[in-house]
Design brief:
The structure is a single chain. The protein has 163 residues and is of the alpha+beta class. The chain has 2 domains: 71 residues, no CATH class; 72 residues. Helix content is 55%, strand content 13%. A hairpin with a 7-residue loop joins strand 1 and strand 2. Helix 4 packs antiparallel against helix 5.
Length: 163
């Protein structure tokens, strides 16, 4: 039986020769891992696999308790936060690409103006404004991802923190 405040420990074989340690506290829910991603406060594939009940890389730990882990994670809202994080990360990448394109257009317009290929600064100013707007949008998306990470860290702890 799985009870409140029960801690589960799994050894998971990752890319490192030594297995990672994934610890789960069911109530209040938290999960930690000793991999580099977790050490940097980011979601990692080892914790995500445990949350979803994937036991392929588990080399030690009670696999029969994985459904309880999944249920506790769902009740704590972890899957919603992970989805929000993935969406924010994807959105941030899209806006980063848009900002990069806007920067290139601005630089092309600026170079053309400086080489006297155009007689007006209007194109430079228009492209500069578009670039600044794209960068502002990107900053908003970065802040959104950071907000989601902060919320996620409440339950999805780095391994150096207490479980």
């Amino acid at each position: 039986m799985v009870g409140e405040n029960q801690e589960l420990t799994y050894l998971v074989q990752g890319s490192s020769p030594d297995p990672y340690v994934v610890k789960v506290l069911l109530s209040p829910f938290s999960i930690s891992c000793t991999c580099a991603a977790a050490e940097n406060g980011l979601p990692c594939k080892h914790r995500t696999a445990i949350l979803h009940g994937a036991d392929l890389d588990i080399i030690k730990g009670d696999r029969s308790k994985l459904p309880f882990v999944n249920k506790a994670a769902g009740a704590a809202g972890i899957f919603i936060l992970l989805g929000d994080y993935d969406n924010a990360k994807t959105s941030e990448k899209t806006f980063s690409e848009m900002a990069e394109k806007a920067f290139k257009k601005y630089m092309a317009a600026r170079v053309a103006y400086m080489q006297k290929q155009t007689k007006t600064e209007r194109a430079v100013i228009k492209n500069r404004d578009a670039m600044e707007a794209a960068i502002e949008d990107l900053n908003i998306k970065i802040e959104k991802r950071q907000d989601v990470l902060k919320a996620l860290r409440i339950y999805y702890t780095p391994s150096r923190g207490s479980v």
